[in-house]
Amino acid sequence: MSEEYPFRPAVVATAVRPPAFDELYAEARLRRRRRQALIAGVFVIVVLAAIALPLAPRGGQVIPAVPPTADAPRVSRVLALSTSTVVAVSYRECDSALAVTTDGGRTWSDWRFTPPPATCTGPRSPGPIEILPLDEHTFLLTREDEQPGGTFQRHQDLSVDGGRTWRPLAETARDVTALPATATVVDCGANQCFGHGNDIFAIDPSAGTVYRLTARPGGLAITGYTAAGGVLWAVLNSGQALAWSTDRGANWHVEPTPEMHGAEGVFAADADHAWLLYLTDDGKPPHIRYTTDGGRGWQDTVTNLPAAVIDAVPLTGTADGALLSGGWVSRDGGATFTALPIPPGPDTPVFSAGRGVMVVQSGAKAYLTGDGDRWVTVPLP
C-alpha cells in the first residue's frame, strides 16, 4: 500500500549534505538505444543523510495478456498522472508492456503488451521503444522499426482502452490545425516526451477523442510541453528554442535560445508565468529562465542547484506555485532551491517530472510528491 512521509526541513538543514551526482547517462540504462541526433539525459541527484530519516475500446491488434515466450516484465520507467494514478512501463527486447494503478500502488492492472514489430526476429531490440500516457486509458507507442539497409522508420500506435488493443496513430487520432477548446492538452514533462517526435496531443474528456496538432513550432523536436491559462508552452530540441501559442496551437511564437541545452520540461502557472531549467557550457549550476508577462519578456538567473556535468534537468510545479526539480523545491519562483530528503533505495534514483508530480524511481518502489512537502511511496508491480 502507499505511504506518505513528510519532509522535515529542520532535520534536512542539519543532516543532509549537498547532493552528489552519480553516473552520467543513468537514464540510458533504462531506455532503449537512441539512434537519433538529439540525446537527452536525466538529472540524477542522490541525497545522502548522516542520520536515518523516517521514510516518509476500439478495434485493433489484440495483444495477449502474457506472450507465451515472454519473460516476466521488469519495471523500466515510472510515469505519474497524479500521486495516485501511476503507469509502470517495461521496455523489453521486441515489445514493451505497461501496468496502471489508480490507488497509489495498492492494486495494479495486469501487464498489457504492445505489438512487436515484424522486423524483430532476434534477441535484440530493432530500435528505441517509448510509451507516453495521454491519460490513464490512452497510451501512445512510438518505436523505430529497422528497415533494409540498416535505416530506421518511426512507427506510432495508439491504445484507447488501457493498452489492451492498439491501432496505428494515423487511424485513431484526429488531426487538427488548432486544438479544440473542449480538449485537455496533455502535459508532457521531463523524460516523457523525448522520442515521440513533433506532435502535441489533447484529449476530449467527455468523448475520449484524441487530437493531434498538425501545426509544429519551428519544425523542431518537442522535448516538453504544457498548457495553462489558454497558452501552450513548448521546449524544442532540449532548449535550443522556446515556443508558445495563444490560439490553441494555430500560430506559434518561436524564440531561438542557442545558449541553452538540457531543458526537458516547462512549467506554467497561468497565461503569464512560465519557468524552465536549463544548462549552459560554462560549468555553472543550472539556470532558470522565466517570464511574468506571457513570453513578452524573459529573465534568467543562476540557481543554487549544484553544478555538475549532466545532460538534462527535470522541472514541474505544484498547484500553489512551488517548483520541483529532482530532490529540490523552490517556493520563491526559482530564486533559491532547498534540498529534500530522498528515501533511500538500492539503486541510483531516476527522476521524471510532469503533471505537477516529481517521481523518484529506485528499486521496487517509486516516491512521488505533488506538493514538495511529503513523499508518497508507491510499490511497483
Helix-strand layout with pairing:
Layout: E1 3-6, H1 9-15, E2 61-62, E3 77-80, E4 86-91, E5 96-101, E6 112-113, E7 129-133, E8 139-146, E9 152-159, E10 165-168, H2 169-172, E11 174-176, E12 184-185, E13 201-203, E14 210-213, E15 222-228, E16 231-236, E17 241-245, E18 253-256, E19 266-268, E20 274-278, E21 287-291, E22 299-302, E23 316-317, E24 323-325, E25 328-330, E26 338-339, E27 350-354, E28 357-362, E29 365-369, E30 374-379
Parallel strand pairs: 11-14
Antiparallel strand pairs: 1-30, 2-10, 3-4, 4-5, 5-6, 7-8, 8-9, 9-10, 12-13, 13-14, 15-16, 16-17, 17-18, 19-20, 20-21, 21-22, 23-24, 24-25, 25-26, 27-28, 28-29, 29-30
Q: How does this model look, in words?
A:
This is BNR/Asp-box repeat protein. InterPro entries: WD40/YVTN_repeat-like_dom_sf (IPR015943). Keywords: Membrane, Transmembrane, Transmembrane helix. The chain crosses the membrane at residues 37-56. It comes from Dactylosporangium matsuzakiense. The chain has a single domain (3-68, 75-379), classed as Methylamine Dehydrogenase, Chain H. Helix content is 3%, strand content 35%. The radius of gyration is 20 Å and the shape is globular. The chain has a five-stranded antiparallel beta sheet, with no helix packed on it. A five-stranded antiparallel beta sheet has the order 2-10-9-8-7. Residues 7-59 have low confidence and may be disordered. The longest helix has 7 residues, at 9-15. It is built from two helices and 30 strands. The protein has 381 residues and is an all-beta fold.
